[in-house]
């Protein structure tokens, strides 16, 4: 296992593993009992579940897709705990009909903690950014972004 000397380093390793489509490498970046909340609110509560979900995603949804960091900020809560926020673009998602979907922008937040072997991810949340939307609204067919402006 690689050793990461900061929250930023382990966050960048997450994107590298994601772009490689490597669910095992992603899982190795998380504590065994880590949490991950994805863009639709699924809450995975272990590195094993995080690995399984990413493996499915790489095989069915994101095969060949790439995710590029466009902004990154680290807030060191202590020498051993770093909060990392990233903005990233995702290109190449496969739509259910097999076509390539358009670009998405996400804000991914991670809480990282130094362990004996370096920083690992304790908690992660992935949120889609929808330009022009203030919130979501429940309507027939589910949630949809909405602007009150």
In one word, what is the shape?
globular
**How much helical structure, as a percent, in the residues?**
10-25%
**First CA to last CA: what distance?**
49 Å
Question: Could you say how many structural domains there are in total?
Answer: 1
Strand content: 35-45%
**Main sheet properties:** 6 strands, mixed
- Number of H/I helices: 3
The CATH class designation is: Alpha Beta
Q: Output the CATH topology.
A: Nuclear Transport Factor 2, Chain: A
Question: What is the structure about, briefly put?
Answer:
Helix content is 21%, strand content 44%. The chain has 149 residues and is α+β, with helices and mostly antiparallel strands. Strand 1 (30-37) and strand 2 (43-44) form a beta hairpin.
Layout of SSEs?
Blueprint: H1 7-19, H2 23-27, E1 30-37, E2 43-44, H3 47-60, E3 66-76, E4 81-91, E5 104-115, E6 118-129, E7 135-139, E8 142-146
Parallel strand pairs: 1-6
Antiparallel strand pairs: 1-2, 3-4, 4-5, 5-6, 7-8
For the structure shown, list the relevant keywords:
149 residues; alpha+beta; Nuclear Transport Factor 2, Chain: A; six-stranded mixed β-sheet; two-stranded antiparallel sheet; globular
3D structure, described in words:
A hairpin with a 2-residue loop joins strand 5 (104-115) and strand 6. The protein has one domain: Nuclear Transport Factor 2, Chain: A. It is globular and about 50 Å long. With 149 residues, the protein is of the alpha+beta class. The longest helix is centred in the middle third of the chain and has 14 residues, at 47-60. The strands form two sheets. A six-stranded mixed sheet has the order 2-1-6-5-4-3. A two-stranded antiparallel ribbon has the order 7-8. It has helices at 7-19, 23-27, 47-60, and strands at 30-37, 43-44, 66-76, 81-91, 104-115, 118-129, 135-139, 142-146. The protein is built from three helices and eight strands. It starts with 6 loop residues before the first helix and ends with a strand.
């Amino acid at each position: 296992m690689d050793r990461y000397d900061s929250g930023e380093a382990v966050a960048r390793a997450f994107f590298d593993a994601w772009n490689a489509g490597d669910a095992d490498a992603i899982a190795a970046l998380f504590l065994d009992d880590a949490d991950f909340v994805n863009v639709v609110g699924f809450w995975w509560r272990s590195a094993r579940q995080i690995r399984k979900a990413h493996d499915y995603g790489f095989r069915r949804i994101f095969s060949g897709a790439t995710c590029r960091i466009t902004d990154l900020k680290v807030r060191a809560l202590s020498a051993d705990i770093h909060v990392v926020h990233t903005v990233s673009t995702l290109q190449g998602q496969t739509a259910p009909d097999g076509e390539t979907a358009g670009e998405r922008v996400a804000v991914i937040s991670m809480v990282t903690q130094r362990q004996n072997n370096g920083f690992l991810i304790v908690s992660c949340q992935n949120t889609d950014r929808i330009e022009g939307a203030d919130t979501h609204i429940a309507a027939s067919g589910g949630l949809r972004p909405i602007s009150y402006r």
